[in-house]
Amino acid sequence: MSLVETTKKAYAGLMTTAIELGGALIVIAIIVGTIAIPIFLCTSTVGWGATNILIWGTVLIVSMAALIMLVIGMFRHRGE
Asked: Residues 6 or more apart from 25 whose CB is under 8 A from it?
């Protein structure tokens, strides 16, 4: 296999990865930004105990951190 063929295959793989990652990030941003977070923030916590309310406040932070770590993991493991 020549260097040109190898370079073309690497370029095609890189473009596929970029398209997949870009599409995934757009879908995540739409779902999380316009659907999930507003529903989460509008949930009524009236009648809940103090512990439940404190846990409810951290769920959004933990889920956002998990999504960010997922994207970082995709970047790291795609290069191997």
From this structure: 71
